[in-house]
Amino acid sequence: MAVKEYKKENPFRLFVDHLQSIGTGIKYMVKPQRITLKYPEESLTLPTGYRGIIRLYKDVCIGCTLCAMICPADAMKMMTYQGKKLPTINYGRCVFCGFCVDICPVDALKETGVHDVAFSNRRDLIFDPEKFNKNFDNPPEDKVVKKVRAVIDEEKGIKYVPES
Amino acid sequence: MEVEVVPVQGELNVGPQHPGSGHMRILVKLNGDIVEDCELDVGYVHRAVEKLGENRNYMHLIPLVERPAILDSIHMNMGYVMAVEKILNVDVPERALYLRSFAAEVNRIASHLYGLGILGIFIGHSTAFMWGFGDREVWLQILEALTGARVTNSYIIPGGVRRDLTPSIIEMTKKAIVYMRKKLKDWEKIFLKNPTIMDRLQNVGVMTREQAIEWGAVGPNLRASGVNFDVRKAEPYAAYSKLDFEIPVYKEGDGYARTLVRFEEMEQSMRILEQIIKDIPEGPILADRFLKQIPPIRMKKWVQGQGRIVLPGYYASFRPPRGEAAARVEASRGELFYYVVSDGSPKPYRLRMITPSYRAIYVFKNLCKGARYADIVSIYGSLDYFPPEADR
Amino acid sequence: MIGNLLSLIRFYFFYPSFFVVIIFPGLLFTGILLLTTIWFERKAAARVQMRVGPYYASKKLGGYLQLIADALKFVFSEVIIPAGVNETLFAIAPILLLLVSILPFAVIPVSVIPQSGSVFSIYYHDFYDPNVGYGVLAGIFTCYNLLLILALESIYPIFVIFLAWVTNNRFAIVGAVRETFLSVSYDALILIATLSVAIEYHTLDLAVIVQKGIPGVIVNPIAAFIFIVGMLIGSSRFPFDIVEAETELVIGPYTEYSGFLFVLTMAGSYVGNFIYSLVFVDLFLGGWYPFSGLPGAAIMTFKAVLLLFFSVFLRSVYGRYRIDQALRGSWKYLFPLSLISLITGTLVGYLWL
């Protein structure tokens, strides 16, 4: 394996390098390549299998406690709800590893692909089986949110194409 | 006439709340503009990963061990899982090995871009900072599609990986490689060949071959000092023994050489990705032993249908046999070492992790001696020192 | 009666000592320009850096009002005065700094006044310059204005050092020491570059230089280059953002300032940069020539603004040099080059102009 050495700077090269740096800057200023997502107006649709907020199918669950056992952050706990053993989740602790979804033997848990949620107090972070049983998503109702999908582009890096 | 030079001495407390210190305090003893001594007060982001490791079972530790360096989580995850696999004595199927290499190299590119961005902003080049983070996003999209999370992927589990490659991810990767190759040319013009950057990095923080070995430098920092050492070549893991790639080694040992090594490693990583896309064999992505435990209906629906492993109940709390194992991987900042001792219970008896940034602390301290005050940040950036990773 | 009053107001409004210093291109215009420059700096950097930049403060104007929003925020945020400093000096230091940076507006000639046909023609005799043959549109007419501008500009670093000393912060003092080193080196560069042009045109009057009709960049390009570099160092623009080096010195001399006083400290270097740009346009880019009156002032300011925009654009291209590299660059390479420009100036001035 050859040990490489970079060429020591050549004083005449210096001027060209300066011009090249400024030239590249101007090139990008004239033809910008922006990847900013204008978030409140545009919202990302996440790829399938994105490990976002988890939901429960209460009727499918068999109460096997495997999800509570594998949970690395002790976010998922079992509780007796209406005479049935069901999991609850504390999103203040959840690390979104998705182990519980993967280990569930009856597919009672599902990743919803929603990740931008906000709560006004810590009590709301704890989902009892009833709340856990719903798709949790609260899109703004009064505004039109454009759903976009991130696509890798050869020219621009990341491009956002509208969700059809 | 004799001019009397009065030494101007003083101390500066750089950090922990300072734009150029990161999560630590650097106590700098200055003589004029020259740093006489530099004390690194680390530990501000210590999270006791090793101690916590003794109180969690093996699967619980996967998300934990990748927390110290979330931008390099695939490597952190892989080293730990490799050690556990050695205790469990599992053979990982070929395709899973390739997928591990795939995720690791995507992660390496993302992590190097992050490091270059930080180096850029440390020496005042805000464009490199934004470009580093912007281009990293492209690779994170691939990781997101593959593993389901941008960082903290928790992708690798004992026996294999959690999800399979899909044609759309291959397509994304091919596009990303084309884009990155093109962008790296502009990177070179505006950053690498930029005279201000060359002046700030060349002959700054020079570490000779002997010093690098003595101070225990690892990874790109070691290779920039002319030592050809890379765990991927020295002790091949994952699929690296079947892949063809070069290890960039530079002689100078200064900040510029370290930056160049990172740049060339990105190119090599892209070469590896191309080979993986071409050569990846068909087959299962989880060891047979665990695959057999998945019920046939779920096997058909998830594993064969969606290329996604569903964990058999075994993983919830398994007890590996008594034993100990060590594993090392080449993380993007250098050699990452894990030592796991099992006493037969569901929790490891001891988990030891030696992270590459931890090794950089001593290097950093030594390189700062005799440097100029403004060089502290450029040494910091060129070492790609990441405080949470060092503090664990 | 009203017509009389109006013409009186008009007379005083357009009186050059008021108009040039307060309205255009003085205080009022500079204030607006400051907003525009910082907006441009942020937008240009954003375009290069794959971002959008300021946007939500006023979507239709492309985020132009963001700076006003920022300024409002600063005005209402608390001014923290550190314990153990002299409060009075702490409060007046940034004000003095801004004051000194604005002073040179009083003497920069921005245009000439023809005998008739311009709004300024009534002041023709009061501002008559016998060497030019026109009236000169400047706050105070003096035929040594070049000397005065340079003298006023060279006080500026003293106030930066004063400010740093008052705040009694270690980072501020390190920044002040850097400013001291740099001011010596860039002042020498700018002085020699201007001197070579002055010798070339045999005058210390900017109006005479411009009215010669030959831009200085043609007769002495080396001096122009050195002036630009000196200007970048003098107003701490990249790649010479050494005094305020954020990752090293937090923000240099201004570390302890907060709230509105911090805004004042920031404005000084932009105003300084604009004044250097105006002088550069007069010296090297032909100033207002061949126009006169208000259009002349406009065309000159336009050129200066372009130069100002270029120098703030460099933020998105360069990193920053180290202090010793900047000093070595200016003393070892640019200083001998400036001496060459002095010789060129002398020769060309003797043979041609």
Provide a descriptive summary of the structure in words.
The complex is a heterotrimer of chains A (164), B (392) and C (353). Chain A has 164 residues and is α+β, with helices and mostly antiparallel strands. In chain A, 21% of the residues lie in helices and 23% in strands. Chain A has a domain at 50-133: 2-Layer Sandwich (Alpha-Beta Plaits), CATH 3.30.70.3270. In chain A, strand 3 (76-81) and strand 4 (84-90) form a beta hairpin. Chain A is elongated, with a radius of gyration of 25 Å. Chain B has 392 residues and is of the alpha+beta class. The longest helix of chain B has 29 residues, at 94-122. The N and C termini of chain B lie far apart (57 Å). The model of chain B has no long low-confidence stretch (mean pLDDT 87). Chain C has one domain (82-351). Chain C has a three-stranded antiparallel beta sheet. Chains in contact: A-B, A-C, B-C. Chains A and B meet through helix 1, helix 2, helix 3 and strand 7 of A and helix 2, helix 5, helix 6 and helix 11 of B.
Q: Helical stretch count of chain A?
A: 4
Whole-number radius of gyration of chain C? 21 Å
Question: CATH top level of one domain in chain A?
Answer: Alpha Beta
What oligomeric state do these chains adopt?
A: heterotrimer
For the largest sheet of chain C, list the strands in their spatial order. 1-3-2
What order do the helices and strands come in, and which of them pair?
The complex is a heterotrimer of chains A (164), B (392) and C (353).
Chain A: H1 11-30, E1 42-44, E2 54-56, H2 66-70, E3 76-81, E4 84-90, H3 99-103, E5 109-111, E6 126-127, H4 129-132, E7 146-153, E8 157-162
Parallel strand pairs in A: 1-7
Antiparallel strand pairs in A: 2-5, 3-4, 4-6, 7-8
Chain B: E1 9-14, E2 25-31, E3 34-41, H1 49-53, H2 61-65, H3 73-88, H4 94-122, H5 126-147, E4 156-157, E5 160-161, H6 167-192, H7 195-201, H8 209-215, H9 219-223, H10 231-234, H11 255-279, H12 288-291, H13 296-306, E6 323-331, E7 334-342, E8 348-354, H14 356-368, H15 375-383, H16 387-391
Antiparallel strand pairs in B: 1-2, 2-3, 4-5, 6-7, 7-8
Helix pairs in contact in B: 3-4, 4-5, 4-11, 4-15, 5-6, 6-11, 11-15, 14-15
Chain C: H1 2-13, H2 16-23, H3 27-48, H4 66-76, H5 87-102, E1 111-113, E2 128-129, E3 134-137, H6 145-153, H7 156-167, H8 170-201, H9 206-211, H10 216-219, H11 221-234, H12 246-249, H13 259-284, H14 293-313, H15 323-351
Antiparallel strand pairs in C: 1-3, 2-3
